[in-house]
Amino acid sequence: MAAITDEQVETVRGLVARIPSGSVATYGDIAEAAGLSSARTVGWIMRTDSSDLPWHRVISASGRPAAHLATRQLERLRAEGVLAVDGRVPLREYRHAF
């Protein structure tokens, strides 16, 4: 992976912070809006620098939450009105557009 700049980190953080309650975005959505070439870069940033952000609103392109956080993530989303079907968030209904 190419070096990630502070500017890229702040851009991703800003985008995640803008996802409203009751909505979700995919790692790819954020990468595209941030001008990054890979959703994996967003994943890396989220893993290392997102504890103060609404991290639970960022999901995979399949609509599934992170496996190791699935229960907690789906509980937080449900509290905001985002309802998963068989462990998957219906993106057509809840996806945030940047």
From TrEMBL:
It comes from the Bacteria. It comes from Mycolicibacterium vaccae ATCC 25954. The keyword Cytoplasm does not apply. This is Methylated-DNA--protein-cysteine methyltransferase. Residues 11-82 form the Methylated-DNA-[protein]-cysteine S-methyltransferase DNA binding domain. Gene3D superfamilies: Winged helix-like DNA-binding domain superfamily/Winged helix DNA-binding domain. It holds the Pfam family DNA_binding_1. Keywords: DNA damage, Methyltransferase, Transferase. One of its GO terms (molecular function) is methyltransferase activity. GO terms for biological process: DNA repair; methylation. The keyword Transferase applies.
